[in-house]
């Protein structure tokens, strides 16, 4: 409780530039991502990651979206795109568990803005001139030692080991092999990382 109150003012949570945003999205791809990245026993499985940007004219989510690539989405639009639970958006706010998190967060936003206009990576492959949502966060969050979050072999299979039809059709349409095992990232792993502290949830 003390943790949550530290981020509130007059009872209302205040986002900070560089906050990590973890969201449950909507649509068929969201369902496929959830099937592949959910952890056993998860109460919530996050399928989208973004970075909060607080500017004088308003609050934005710096994000890579499948329909528009890397953009600065006004906060109300970002919230409206979330899955809802009891009328509340399923969005969590995370912060790094380190003293220099504010500085790193501000630097992450600056790096992330350099990707504005870059197309969304529907192939989910690294360093190909395109970028997907958690890859944007991965590329943006760095310190003197390099990227803060780890890239791990990607999994596209459901918990029972089967490959969802969505991914089979998706990559067949692209004429590409499914990048199973290729190093990558996902929103749910980032949200559950020991490096991140969830300081607020909009759905509670």
CATH topology grouping: endopeptidase fold (from Nostoc punctiforme)
**Total discrete domains:** 1
Q: Find the count of extended strands (DSSP E, 2+ residues).
A: 14
Number of helices: 7
Low-confidence stretches: 1-10
The secondary-structure class comes to alpha+beta
Rg measurement, Å: 16 Å
Kindly describe this structure:
The protein is α+β, with helices and mostly antiparallel strands and 204 residues long. It has one domain: endopeptidase fold (from Nostoc punctiforme) (Alpha-Beta Complex). The protein contains seven helices and 14 strands. It has a six-stranded antiparallel β-sheet. The longest helix is centred in the middle third of the chain and has 13 residues. The two termini are 13 Å apart. The N terminus is likely disordered.
Structural key phrases:
about 200 residues; alpha+beta; endopeptidase fold (from Nostoc punctiforme); six-stranded antiparallel beta sheet; two-stranded antiparallel sheet; about 30% helix; globular; disordered N terminus
Question: What's the topology here?
Answer:
Elements: H1 2-6, E1 8-9, E2 12-13, E3 20-23, H2 28-37, E4 48-55, E5 58-65, E6 69-74, H3 75-80, E7 84-85, E8 88-89, E9 91-96, H4 101-113, H5 133-140, E10 142-143, E11 146-147, E12 152-153, H6 165-174, E13 183-184, H7 187-192, E14 196-201
Antiparallel strand pairs: 1-2, 3-4, 3-9, 4-5, 5-6, 7-8, 9-14, 10-11, 12-13
């Amino acid at each position: 409780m003390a943790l949550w109150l530290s981020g509130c003012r007059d009872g209302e949570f205040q986002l900070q530039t560089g906050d990590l945003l973890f969201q449950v999205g909507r649509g068929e791809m969201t369902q496929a991502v959830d099937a592949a990245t959910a952890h056993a026993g998860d109460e919530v499985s996050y399928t989208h990651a973004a970075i909060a940007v607080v500017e004088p004219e308003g609050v934005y989510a710096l994000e890579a979206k499948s329909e528009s690539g890397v953009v600065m989405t006004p906060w109300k639009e970002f919230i409206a795109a979330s899955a809802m639970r009891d009328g509340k958006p399923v969005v969590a706010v995370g912060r790094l568990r380190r003293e220099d998190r504010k500085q790193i967060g501000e630097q992450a936003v600056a790096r992330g803005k350099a990707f504005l206009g870059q197309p969304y990576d529907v192939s989910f492959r690294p360093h190909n001139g395109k970028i997907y949502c958690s890859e944007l966060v991965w590329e943006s969050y760095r310190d003197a030692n390099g990227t803060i979050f780890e890239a791990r072999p990607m999994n596209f299979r459901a918990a029972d080991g089967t490959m969802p039809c969505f991914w089979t059709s998706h990559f067949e349409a692209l004429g590409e092999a499914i990048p199973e095992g290729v190093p990558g990232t996902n929103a749910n792993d980032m949200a559950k990382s020991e490096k991140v502290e969830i300081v607020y949830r909009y759905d509670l």
